[in-house]
Design goal:
The chain is 51% helix and 15% strand. The chain has 12 helices and 10 strands.
Amino acid sequence: MKAWVCYLKTNPHDHSVFEAKVRELKELTRAAGYSVVGQTVQLRFRPDSRYLLGRGKITELRDQMERSDADIAVFYDVLTSIQKHNITTTLAKEVIDRYDLTLRIFEMASSDRLSKLQIRLASLEKAIPYEKLQASLMFRRGREHPGPKSMGEYAYHNTVANLGKTRASVKGEIETRRAEKLAQLRKRKRLGLPTVCLAGYYNAGKTSLFNALTGLKREVKPTPFTTLASKYYKTGNPETPVLLVDTIGFAMDLDPRLIASFSLTLDDIRFADVVLLVVDISDEPVLMQLRIDTCLKELKSLGVNEGQLLIAANKVDRVSSTRIEESVATLKEKAGSCPIVLTSVKEGRGIGLLAEEIASRARDVTPKTLAAA
């Protein structure tokens, strides 16, 4: 299927950040199985409440999509229900935003029950407001009213009610599983087994490093979000064993509802004793800074402090020594004084040093309590 990507630029002085975000949107769109045939970027000081982009720009987009035979419009910004309704009506094409796109990639990667539950919850959080709007619009247009021969409005309200019940059921199962997981975490704490969790942007090389540190051969794919369910492995030497955890990757500008839906998976980071932040320093400088900022912001929101942090500056085999120095300087500026280890799984560089640093941090760190749970 052919996709047309769309981005609203609100800062007239932004000459590079928006380009990096548009490139990432295209990357994610292709990862979801679409062929990108065009793009629309509009500069507006604020989003249009009805169409996000201006009404004229949406009309222009409709004509462009018709000429290119595009099947779907993909927006970087998360659309409100009314924006999605109005754009869909104007384009007469399928319309999704970054929230929907991310979920589609998640669905392609998910294989376990927990991942599917969390994806389902995130989908429902977005679908329910949209279905409520559809019911409201139908009532306002007067097309259907309650009565024995007028079932359209009833059908919409029925859909909303059923979605609400499904959401409550999914939330209930997730909370049950979360209680079980927290009990397991408490048991590990009592046993004195430090937990070291790998975190970072998607495709930074977390799973490759996890394999290098454990000797395992977990599947590594070039597509984003291949790790949705956390992977655990006890490693280290007998004197300083640790539980190493590989978990879901971060992404820029994710909707809080989507992040909240994966709270159970994020508990692995939230309650880790040490967090190994994996950074791909082969990214272009602007993109690398955006991704570091995203990771540090999310880690802070999860209660991770600088004293728990260890950074693996990964994929050093792909860049020059000058770029490595510049990237390390950026990391020090962004993340403070936490240790930074240069790594390359391809060359085996820094893996032993990283393992030693993990063991050292695990010995020295104050165990994280589960009081916040």
